[in-house]
Amino acid sequence: MVWVRMIYAAVVIALASILLMPFQLLALKFDWKLRRTLPRLWHKFACHALGIRVRVKGSLETRRPLMLCVNHASWMDIMVMSSVADVSFIAKIEVSGWPVFGHLAKLQKSVFIVREEKRNTGNQANEIAGRMADGEIIVLFPEGTTSDGNRLLEVKSSLFGAAAMAVPHSPNGSVFVQPVAIAYTGVHGIAMGRYHRPLAGWPGDVELMPHLLDVLRMGALDAEVSFGEPVDYRADSKRKDVSATIAQRIRAMLNSSLRGRDIA
Fold it and tell me: Which residue has better confidence, 162 or 131?
């Protein structure tokens, strides 16, 4: 059955790519706003093809500029998040060279950052700030790496610099930073137990293809996306305070989803 699912997934994703990619390339070339919406449609097809069923709790903040801070467990996070909102991602420069995923990241106009080169930090933050001021929704993975999907790793306050730099460009003098938790909660509609928990995470030492095959083998994986209360980031806000608040809210939502409970 896994080969049937692989063939089905390949056909669906290939057809979606053939139909949508030419329009996305044109939209990128001429900077049409269509480039922000087409990736969501493609990722909806991709999630369907891979058997990833997405449930949303809460709602996306409607005010702008907006940055989403999301916990990061797996390559699936990109597809799940992109299927529910028109977003672009902040990614490390190494991602741009990855096969398939690097190309997809470029098509979604991700911002690739070089963390080791501090001289470029200002330029990168300015680009992010400018795009947020233009109404784009930027996704930040504040842990800076992937986890096992069962917990939130340490949140790096330094990565919130782009939000701070976007404040002067905001017409209302603030940037809205919204916490978002992605939790992988079930397989075939049944709560994910200890045996299936490795599907939820894609740590750096796990190869992509074996993990992808495991996801296809399951055929139906449930993902829950929880939107939390945003933080109003203003000129007098302290980066560490904002990051601590965001981390607390992501952790609470993640734990709630994994335990099958709603936050009061």
Answer: 131
Question: Looking at the 3D structure of the chain, how many domains does it have?
Answer: 1
* Distance in angstroms (rounded) separating the CA atoms of residues 100 and 104: 6
Counting beta carbons within 10 angstroms of the beta carbon of residue 127, is it exposed (0 to 12), middle (13 to 18) or buried (19 or more)? middle
The closest alpha carbon to 224, from 178, 179, 180, 176, belongs to: 180
Strands 190-191 and 174-187, by their bridges, are: antiparallel
Highest mean pLDDT out of 73-77, 83-87, 186-190? 83-87
In a domain, 24, yes or no: no
Positive or negative, the CA dihedral 99, 139, 186, 45 is: negative
Asked, for residue 212, whether it belongs to a domain, the answer is yes
* Residue-range definition of the domain harbouring residue 121: 51-259
Query: What share of the chain has pLDDT > 90, as a percent?
Result: 56
* Per-residue confidence band for 258, with pLDDT thresholds at 50, 70 and 90: very high
Q: How far apart are CA 113 and CA 88, in angstroms?
A: 13
Q: Is the full-model pTM beyond 0.70?
A: yes
Coil, helix or strand for 181?
strand
Residue 191 lies in a domain: yes
Question: Per the domain annotation, does 205 fall within a domain?
Answer: yes
Contact 168, 182 (CB under 8 A): no
Structure tokens at 191: 């709560």
